[in-house]
Known about the structure:
CATH architecture: 3-Layer(aba) Sandwich
Bound molecules: zinc ion
Helix content: 25-40%
Distance between the termini: 10 Å
Strand order of the largest sheet: 2-3-7-6-1-5-4
Mean pLDDT: 96
CATH superfamily: Alkaline Phosphatase, subunit A
Shape: globular
Amino acid sequence: MLSAxxxxxxxLDGIGLGPGGNMTNPFCQxxxxxxxxxxxxxxxxxxxxxxxxxxxxxxxxxxxxxGIPQSATGQTxxxxxxxxxxxxxxxxxxxxxxxLIQVIDNYSILKQVTDLGGKATFANAYTPHYFELVERGxxxxxxxxxxxxxxxxxxxxxxDLRRGQAVYWDITNEHLLHQDTSVxxxxxxxxGQHLAHISHDHNLVLYECxxxxxxxxxxxxxxxxxxxxxxxxxxxxxxETMEPQTSILISSDHGNLEDLSTGAHTCNPVPLLVxxxxxxxxxxxxxxxxxxPAIVSFLEP
Length: 301
Ligand SMILES: [Zn+2]
């Protein structure tokens, strides 16, 4: 372990900060009492919140490249500190291609922290089926998975999930129950508590949830409201369980869910929400490219 400093990095795919008072922005309508209590407003655009150990700012995901930001380049930028969209000259959707895999191999946030002597982990649980699909060439690795491989870390399994030592990508295991009924459903608050427990012996815990991007593409308001309620309970579970020296950082790769008038991604800024000592270190961040360097320099001895 590097030091007592700990960071939980929650990556929510497809969440931007959109305008308030808008019927197509589910963040204006969702019941999120814990987040409201923390921020004093919904997770929408507005003045920067910078009070003690709390920071909420909108950061750029367009990265000086024309077009609508996409997942492969956005996530690579977010998890490496490099401008992946500029490297390619365009925004690449879905999964990283060979040039981006090279960038992740060199600059993966998990690798940067382990190279410093820190203990880093990816909290998501994986099924054996996932690796079979990749083996057969029927699936490509996501940016987060490539970050784990670059750092030569182990993947968490369904056994870890059963023991409360992993979290599934949908928070509650709902999607997993279709494939494997041996894993019980989890409440969102318990999933948050599990994530916080993992951070007790790690300097960096990365967690990915791509539910918001899926719902945003489908423009499904009902599902969006249900998910945001779960997200609120999940974040509450993390924050109430994490130790005082631990920080939580939440960000995204591009907007989507905050504008259900379109099924496409948006050019809105994405949230940079930080709770804990790391908040003081993140006040000057402008884009998603600045997130990894800020976390790594915060953890650096
Ligand atoms: Zn995405």
